[in-house]
From TrEMBL:
UniProt keyword terms in alphabetical order: Cell membrane, Membrane, Transmembrane, Transmembrane helix
Ranges of Low complexity composition bias in the record: 211-226
Protein name: Predicted arabinose efflux permease, MFS family
Listed PANTHER family: INTEGRAL MEMBRANE EFFLUX PROTEIN-RELATED, STAPHYLOFERRIN A TRANSPORTER
Chief localization: membrane
Subcellular location: Cell membrane
Membrane disposition: Multi-pass membrane protein
Chain positions covered by the region annotation Disordered: 204-227
GO annotation, cellular component aspect: plasma membrane
Length: 418
């Protein structure tokens, strides 16, 4: 670090240095397997429910029900992320998820029971996601945390795209029961990889005791149940001015940015396009996100990523203002790719977040962060659809972009202050 070229070299080799850490490689591969298994199970369940009932509503519910209980799991179980050793908790939650998916494969299982089982997988999902995010901070130095998180995000985007195709092929080639068992098998493989590939580490935080120093959240004030501590921790996160700013940057830009994806079908219809254009519109923003995240991680230093939070955040929304001019398909796709590239701002936010939260509370905070993102994105999809009942899809996207610009400017400037 004594050479003036060292920061540039570190930026260029950052991803390779992160992937060179054996424990992170285990987390990375386990995440890919888990997403493939979960998405395959979701698409198989949705198709199974539709084939049995003929109801589009129930088929959509089968796909969405795994996301709905994230709020329940995050608010009631988040304290376990720090009170239980990370490897043990990740293995346990993945094993439970695999078992629940396998139970869906039992022949003759009623549709309501299958939906209830998928609901249960969503309740434990935020616990796994938050523990995994905090584990990234355990195995990587602070300057590598944002890069590690960005690699996991890129892997998630690619695995989801591949998972939809994979699930469709499984459903077509196998019986629904075997397709669900294949999804459970991938989840079990993820579980075994975590168990065999990660060393045992102690819990980040012992049972709560009054007066512990160095906490970002209000002290527990004495021993209590994990549920009570989870609820208290959720309130503490929302009461912390610093964390509220970082949560605003973590949650609301993606919520407002999904408007174009939520309205892909009506946008394509307004351009005279069919399913092919819808698929392209849905793929444009994720493609931009992967490219923007990779470039931000490869070309910028850690400090530069923090300074780029506001410029890149604005890049997420400024291109969407162009929809007010009702562009043609090619220009629209270019605007969406450019908008997706702005999501590289998240690397700077991740760096600020890991600095703001003591190690003993990272699991609980990251559980709330990841669950809140899933929940609010669902709200964003629903809100965009509701507004499109009264306004044109292009107008809805422009209004969401204006709101996103306001959020980035207001929260981004406060996030950069010590």
């Amino acid at each position: 670090m004594t050479s003036p070229t060292a920061p540039r070299a570190a930026a260029r080799t950052g991803y390779l240095r992160v992937l060179a850490v054996p424990e992170f490689r285990v987390l990375f591969l386990a995440e890919v397997l888990a997403i493939l298994g979960q998405v395959a199970a979701q698409i198989t369940l949705s198709l199974t429910v539709y084939s049995r009932t003929g109801s589009p509503l129930l088929a959509a519910l089968a796909f969405a029900v795994g996301f709905l209980p994230h709020l329940l799991g995050a608010t009631l179980l988040s304290a376990w992320s720090d009170r239980v050793p990370a490897r043990r908790l990740m293995v346990l939650t993945q094993a439970v998820t695999a078992l629940l998916v396998a139970c869906m494969a039992v022949p003759g299982t009623p549709v309501p029971v299958m939906l209830l089982l998928m609901f249960a997988t969503g309740a434990v999902a935020p616990l796994y996601q938050g523990t995994k995010a905090a584990a990234v901070a355990d195995v990587l130095p602070p300057e590598g945390f944002a890069l590690g998180r960005s690699l996991l995000r890129m892997a998630a985007q690619l695995a989801q795209i591949c998972g939809f195709a994979f699930g469709g092929v499984l459903f077509a080639a196998l019986s629904p029961a075997l397709a669900l068992l294949a999804g459970a098998g991938l989840l079990l493989a993820s579980c075994l990889l975590l168990r065999l590939g990660l060393p045992a580490r102690p819990a980040r935080r012992p049972p709560p005791a009054a007066g512990r120093p160095g906490r970002a959240l209000p002290p527990a004030g004495g021993a209590s149940s994990p549920v009570a501590e989870s609820l208290r921790g959720a309130r503490g996160v929302l009461r912390s001015p610093r964390l509220r700013v970082l949560l605003a940057l973590t949650w609301f830009p993606p919520v407002l940015g999904v408007s174009a994806e939520a309205l892909a079908a009506p946008l394509a219809d307004g351009l005279g396009g069919g399913p092919a254009l819808v698929a392209l519109l849905l793929s444009a923003t994720p493609a931009g996100m992967i490219a923007g995240t990779f470039l931000a991680g490869s070309l910028l230093t850690d400090a530069q990523r923090v300074r780029a939070v506001v410029p890149l955040g604005l890049l997420t929304f400024v291109p969407l203002l162009g929809l007010g001019l009702y562009p043609g398909p090619a220009v629209l796709l270019g605007l969406l790719v450019l908008s997706g590239a702005g999501y590289g701002y998240a690397l700077g936010v991740d760096r600020l977040l890991v600095e703001a939260v003591p190690a003993g509370e990272r699991g609980q905070v990251m559980t709330l962060v990841t669950a809140g993102l899933m929940i609010f994105q669902g709200v964003g999809f629903a809100l965009a659809g509701a507004l499109a009942e009264f306004l044109s899809p292009n107008t809805v996207v422009v209004l969401a972009a204006l709101a996103g610009i306001a959020v980035v400017l207001a929260a981004g400037r406060r996030a950069g202050r010590p």
